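Inputs:
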Amino acid sequence: MAAPMLRWVGRGRRWTFARVDGGSCHRRGAPTGSTSNRIREQSSVAQQPLYTTQKPRKGEHKWAAVVGLEIHAQISSNSKLFSGSQVRFSAPPNSLVSFFDASLPGTLPVLNRRCVEAAVMTGLALNCHINKKSLFDRKHYFYADLPAGYQITQQRLPIAVNGSLTYGVCAGKKQSQVIPKTVRIKQIQLEQDSGKSLHDDLRSQTLIDLNRAEGQLRVDANISVHHPGEPLGVRTEVKNLNSIRFLAKAIDYEIQRQIDELENGGEILNETRSFHHQLGYTMSMRDKEGKQDYRFMPEPNLPPLVLYDATSLPAGADPQQVINIDQIRETLPELPSVTRERLVQQYGMLLEHSFTLLNEVGLLEFFQNVIKETRAEPKKVTSWVLNTFLGYLKQQNLAVSESPVTPSALAELLDLLDSRAISSAAAKQVFEELWKREGKTPGQIVSEKQLELMEDRGALEQLCHSVMEAHPQVVMDLKEGNPRAINKLIGLVRKATQSRADPAMIKEILEKLSS
Amino acid sequence: MRTMLGRTLREVSAALKQGQITPTELCQKCLSLIKKTKFLNAYITVSEEVALKQAEESEKRYKNGQSLGDLDGIPVAVKDNFSTSGIETTCASNMLKGYIPPYNATVVQKLLDQGALLMGKTNLDEFAMGSGSTDGVFGPVKNPWSYSKQYREKRKQNPHSKNEDSDWLITGGSSGGSAAAVSAFTCYAALGSDTGGSTRNPAAHCGLVGFKPSYGLVSRHGLIPLVNSMDVPGILTRCVDDAAIVLGALAGPDPKDSTTVHDPINKPFMLPSLADVSKLCIGIPKEYLVPELSSEVQSLWSKAADLFESEGAKVLEVSLPHTSYSIVCYHVLCTSEVASNMARFDGLQYGHRCDIDVSTEAMYAATRREGFNDVVRGRILSGNFFLLKENYENYFVKAQKVRRLIANDFVNAFNSGVDVLLTPTTLSEAVPYLEFIKEDNRTRSAQDDIFTQAVNMAGLPAVSIPVALSNQGLPIGLQFIGRAFCDQQLLTVAKWFEKQVQFPVIQLQELMDDCSAVLENEKLASVSLKQ
């Protein structure tokens, strides 16, 4: 199967199959399969926002919700978790399937070193305790896209446990205030991804793709509500949420549904539910088999996974045969929270701006490259990168890497602005020209379009004079004290200068000429 | 020339090197004998074309002086639960009829890389679940000793002996096809598998050396598993030196099997001839003296101990106190792993698929009902029961703890200074098929694995050595058990013992007339332990 996955918490599942001709083709919620390499992570977010139905009436209890997420994330690796076959997105179906992936009898799993390193690195990044010894287990269920009849995972003793992740939530009137929150990570486990089932309802067939390099992130959410101070409520599990937006919607819906249910005298069943993302509600999956017993047992073909650190590393150990946690720690890049703090400290930027810089892939690097090459103030750079540059990208739905404007070009442009060689308005014009990808530098564009700031006061005075002559009525208004008249004249002059003049200077000249 | 088939692997290898016979000639002789002994049902598939082609290539190498070593040109057979590229691999089950693996098991590949000729795939109990080689979909394997001069003469003396045709003996199992193939001279060595005694048991019944290597010494990649944590490829040969040669070719770490060990092992496994055993300490586990043990086996066992003692070895009684829990513990662990390992046989990708298509679940159920025999289905059912969440702690976890105790018993015995343990391999000699099938598979397996199974729990090396013929003229074997990864030491002791007992060669004259000529020069050595 497919790509390696890391799984953060919980369990998952996958739409199931029926590859039978002519009969009923049911889709039921199968337990999660994973055959790619993946990390599964369980975070128990014990969020405690208090919920009430509409307006709380006097004496009415408030509700608290508890949410736990099981996150299935595919590991970025060249080959699969337990076999040598490649992992490649959108490869032709079943083109990357080894004998092991197809579960041919007699084949054995061989653990992928890169996946273990990725799991350790994830564990370190999430402040987890890394288990020096972890174990693999088999989780059994019958499903067509699970050819072995079991999935290899880490149920009993996973590779990392007890971590935490601190993040910020935007709040306040303009969502400009960032409130720090912490989520606890219960465990991180390496898990094989299952195959993919494609249901052809028309022909009552299901097609299986054992490449398994599909969904890169999938989340199952466990949700319950209770009255603060009372025991936790019965939880439901909403499965297979594949975007952050749907995750949030599903959780909100499910919390409200449970509250409504309980307040109307109903009860919450411990069940799996699916989220209808178009209609925005969750519904019971009504798995007719009821609760699955996965009959976990140790995977006998994989010895315990033993990790070392500097103190436990055996002398003379072959570096190819051992994994050193301390060594991985050294290669850990700066974590986002540290980067954000540094940005705030170093450039005096607002925390929310630092979030934006980090949330867009490549944007931080772009920003830093501009900073490196320009004399402009960091605040100016931040503003241009986050407003103008990011605005253009968003408008055209481009990634940073696809930007027609290079960091050097933006840096040069900001230098021109900083040295007052051009006005802000002209700078915007230059930026727009740069976006056209014609291969010109900002300097070339400025000189071709004659966008330099008019430094010649005499010439500007001449221009102001001509404008006033051409618009006697406006001049009259001005003299009669109409406050809007001056702005109109400034506008006319700027237009005549193609925005190359400093509006303050124009105003000063106009005032002098009309007095 | 005519005596080639009766030789040991090492002898025939020397003959090939000296040009006394060519690989093709040898291959054809074996093929012809395979045909003559077809009624033994030792082979499920005879890979005649493959073998002849390999023989041709081997012959070229010998002509060019580029022999690959001791195994070049040697006919071998492989139990039909090892994957063989391009050759049907059935596990003697309807489930895998017609399944042709696209790859070779590592051990098969290693044999081929050494120039061995693959004669065919041998019969077994379905998925190696059994101790008689009677429970496969291709029918039972017949023990060549049923047709031996030694057995027949004894039977004539017995006025109660029944109808000869229905009175044939089982080979033991589950690697009975491999044992019969070597015993009937159709090949010089065969691979078995050993999970609870499946190589040693038929070796004892067929008068062969049956060797179970240390767990982790030989790759399991490509061996269709019974119990992953206990399975090892086993070796069946006519003498200890031959087993060592084959082990030398097979042993070593395999990147495709993460349970193989990387520590360097002495290779090749050339066995020294022990001049004296005075520095040896032989342990006799007292718990192995069970009431069911036949008096003949018991007597040979004690004679063997006396032999060591008389030659100067120290012989100690040792205790393996948890032995009696081995069978029940094995039952839980074996069936649990079976339930898991058999889950992949669902009719979707390979092997048998039923005609039912109302739903996927119905298809699974019918496929598995049709594909597996009662024994396999019974074990799947038990195993799934033991693995249920509510039962896991009470059965599986407890069985694992008992397994640890059993393994520790051996550790303690070896720590007390014992070099090897000496035990019976089986309770008695081979029994007639009609006798054997009176009990169900489960009962028989429980009885027959009693001396062999604990070794698999502990991952130790063990070898069954043919010792003498019983009063009925049938082979009896004794087992030596060594320290983990002291396979060479174990075989060295076994080789010394083998030399002392001079077990007789099977005489199949009455059965195969040209075999009589083949074998006529082999003298029936005196049996030093004869009662």
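Confidence is low (pLDDT under 50) at residues 9-36 of chain A. Flag for discussion at group meeting.
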